[in-house]
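Appendix B. One record, verbatim.
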Amino acid sequence: MTNASRRRFAMALATIAIVLPRPAEAANFAGTWVIHGTMGKPAVAEVNPVCVFTQDGNQLKGTCKGPNGVGPADGTVDGQNIVFHWAHVATSYNGMTATTTFKGTLGAVDAMAGTWTTPTVPDKTGTFTAQKVK
């Protein structure tokens, strides 16, 4: 292979590397989040946990505690998007034991919003907002 051929080949590889999509860098969701969500109009369910997350790359772990339930949370981050599952156990008569799933997007600084589902209210999806406090 001639020097000119090598240069053309190197330029072609560089062009391919520039064009190929790169995975989105995971946003930082680590910290304490105050979440408020409702489901239905009128509201048939509410969720109000405070969640504390640690993040390792795109993996999320932590705990959430609400007025009527507590338990571990885990999930994944993809760019500005997050999906996490809170496996809560009832801590009061009004609490329910289930796994609630949250799907959100980081918006303004230290804020996110999205949807949530729970098997205790089948066939319905709620909305939530969250604010990072630490």
